# Entry
Amino acid sequence: MQLNDELKNINLPAPPELGDVPYIRIQPSKGWVSIKFKELWAYRELLFFLIWRDVIVRYKQTVLGASWAILQPFISMVVFSIFFGRLAKMPSDGIPYPIFNYTAMVPWTLFATRMALASNSLVGSAGMIKKIYFPRLALPLATIVAGLVDFALAFLVLIGMMFYYGFAPTINIIWLPFFLLLALCAALGASLWLSAMNVQFRDVRYTIPFITQFWFFITPVVYPTSLIENPLYAALYSLNPMVGVIEGFRWALLGTDTAPSFTIIISAVITLVLLVSGAMYFARMEKTFADVV
Amino acid sequence: MSSISIRVEGLSKQYYIGRSPKFSTIREKIVDNFKAPFRRAGNLMRGQATGAAELHEAIWALKDVCFEIKPGESVGIIGRNGAGKSTLLKILSRITQPTAGYADIYGRVGALLEVGTGFHPELTGRENVYLNGSILGMARTEIDRKFDEIVDFSEVEKFIDTPIKHYSSGMTVRLAFAVAAHLEPEILVIDEVLSVGDAAFQKKCLNKMEDVEQSGRTILFVSHNMPAVTRLCSRAIFLQQGQLLMDGPSAEVVGAYLNSGLGTTAAREWNELKQAPGDDVVRLRAVRVRAEDGEVKEAVDIRKPVRLEMEYDLFESGFKQMPYFIVLNQEGTTVFTSIDTDPEWRQKPRPAGHYTSTAWIPGNYLAEGTHFVSAALRSQDPMIRRFHEREAIAFHVVDSTEGDSVRVDHGGHLGGVVRPFLKWETEYHANGNGAR
# Structure
């Protein structure tokens, strides 16, 4: 019968060619583990999906949706302008206080909210970690990168404010992506430490609001760095990587005096140390996540 | 060209379980409370993973497991709960690391340890298919290609663009399995996920697994469903308390597992006369299933005859008695009822005494799977049922694919309440025109 002949010609998928199969040896690792960059690259599509999921879910769920990304830094800026700018008469390097503050609020919000979310990313995805293999680094990394969407929206408002206050962009604006990258790396470095520790000790999560608040006050968001006159204190102060980020943003967009120099170099170095040490600690603890989470 | 798919050598995994040290005085307890944060911080920096619970006792979830699997083999992993099956799968899927030993894996591993991991209730079915597929390791293009197939398999086409928080649990599970079923790695590792959905869907899943097996992929299958294991897998590994007890043809290994003292359901005895089923005239003392050689066995070969035995005490003489068995399958369907046909005692009044009646079930008659046996007895003239012990014992019929059972060479599902070996005849004429 003709039908039978046709059926004979339908091929089941051929068994895979064994010549070029990936090979791996699974064995216990001891001590410090190297960060598997190649593997992270191989899982880039998963990284993309995790970022996409984070963004879509947040925007589907909240009533305010996209506007929350703008309202949070904006309303904070309004409140700070009233209390610090006007009432407390905080100096602001010769720039109108609202835009002085908002230029700092945009990268700060990115850093703070993303660090907080990423620190809980492992515990929050415990189900996935226990049942599927993928490089665990993808979880905090995806959370951090997803913050760029909110950042973009808040940045649009910043551009609007620059227009309103009459600030034209200078040539130094080309440095802006570098400062943005610095903020992302600082957030990532901190959250690699915190998320890995949080898996073992769940109360790390409760320290995050405190850490964030403390970090807020040692960052020049509501006040200028020039407030610190003693050069020794100023040097210690710039050990905070976000100092370099904020001053960099203000310099690139508003043309303040805080040209890249000492401060920013220190911030960059500290960020690098934070990132590398965080990644190493994370990689070392990674093998225990599925057992402990 | 690799001749090995998976090689496991001395694989061991140790877990810490809880038992905090006891303090005999309050002073000790208070001192410990002060020391604890420093101790924990020290552990943290050293990279120990016991967590805040500080669990002290260690158990070996797996100890020195060694085996080799060739490409295309399908191997079942069986054992009681806690034997280490899931731990083995977790190590082979790289979710957790072994404590000692190693495993060489040639090929990509697709692990199905849970269905629907990563599903987010706010996303639609379509979005979740992409997310879940990506989590399981499928490339975006692969998902695009298989999307229609996946949706079709899951039978939720109408709702594919609705957020899954509106799905029924059955729909979610079907969609999740549909995604997982279309994974095409070289090695597929499945952990008891086939028991999802209703009976019709379960059948669909099992059939899909059979297709995967046919396609030449290596399969590792953990299950408690023995018929599924003997059906899908040619080879099985029996784990007990973390150690590999047996590794061989699945029918044999499944048989050994079922016989391994899980409380013999193949025999039931009543030692106390007062508790034995029956009345003043007759009491049932024992019901047993025996293999051909007379041994009480829980797992019997489908090709061999099986003996059903009942022992009873008759206290009054002069009545005709009719012992009978009712055999049911695991779905509760009665396979058959058999009444004592022994010509020696038929229509003869029986004297008081101890009787053992045996019924012989021919080989290649019963279907595969678990069977339950009820034992009963009726007196005749007048007809009074003396005892009817429902589902007194159970036994498992195991089929092999060695070629001399009804299965012959068919590895897939064979339906039927019975599985008789029938005689077949074929007539052949070598004229090609269909003329007769």
